[in-house]
Amino acid sequence: MAAVVLDGKACGAEVEAVVSSRVAALRAAGVSPHLAVVIVGDDPASHVYVGAKERACARVGIESTRIDLPSSASFSEVVAVVERLNGDPSVHGILVQSPLPAGMDELSITELIDPAKDVDGFHPVNLGRIVQGRTDGLVPCTPAGVVKLLEWGGVELSGKRAVVVGRSRIVGTPVSLLLGRKGVDATVTIAHSRTPDLAETCRAADILIAAVGRAELVRADWVKPGAAVVDVGVNRVDDESEKGYRLAGDVHPEVASVAGHLSPVPGGVGPMTIAMLMQNTVTAAENQQN
Ligand code: NDP
Hints:
Number of helices: 9
Strand content: 15-25%
Distance between the termini: 51 Å
CATH architecture of the largest domain: 3-Layer(aba) Sandwich
CATH class of the largest domain: Alpha Beta
Helix content: 25-40%
Radius of gyration: 19 Å
Bound molecules: NADPH dihydro-nicotinamide-adenine-dinucleotide phosphate
Shape: globular
CATH superfamily of the largest domain: NAD(P)-binding Rossmann-like Domain
């Protein structure tokens, strides 16, 4: 039996429909929700992601402004842009596209963003709220999208064993906290590069989240039959095609023959991340009216 597809495009479209109506309500009250995206340098993948975010803003009626800085920009130039955006009342959300050029301290920039405008949800205040079990702040987009996709797919989380492979600040750690929090109630194991028995650890999972950055690492014999598997990974694998590469997740396609649910790459977590960014931006705009 092939796994049920956790269709991030369909789920994301539903999230965006709700966002659109919230945007319309704000506009009716004279507020134009506005996202500013700062991109430093010319990393091609970053430009693709920023383009997708701008198109999503256009779909839901959020105004977007893109601030392009050259890869030669200094740390203090980036700081100056963030500080200007923090102080601009017409801007409700600020996103500094990762990665920043080598050597530029990303964490310091994250900490400079006004937490009320931190639509990526990476500021310590917003991450700290999740540790407190609160999701009334701005929740990181990819982790929030993973949980939303599972719930939308009808996957039972309460009392289930979840294994998250990866413990990054932006995906693995926050998604672990969201899955284990009161009200969601999964029992969470966090695995990483020092986990000795990774395949066995994964096989115990009712819910398996792969956020590793290693193409097709998770094989069919790592997965408990019927488990729900969410593939966060986006990896470039060289091939003979015209582009010279293909996109692969962290989960091998053969897992579809074992899992109960599986999110595709592309079309799974990617569209959810963008939809949750739209949701955070409208939430930020609403909160700034109070
Ligand atoms: P990071 O590189 O920051 O973290 C990777 C994590 O995986 C680390 O915790 C690392 O362990 C662990 N890891 C690495 N190799 C192994 C291994 N062989 N076995 C077990 N664990 C391992 O990556 P991110 O969290 O930023 O991203 C993960 C993936 O998700 C990437 O492919 C990225 O492109 C994708 N992504 C997709 C998004 C989307 O919207 N679809 C958004 C964000 C990311 P350790 O901590 O020990 O080093």
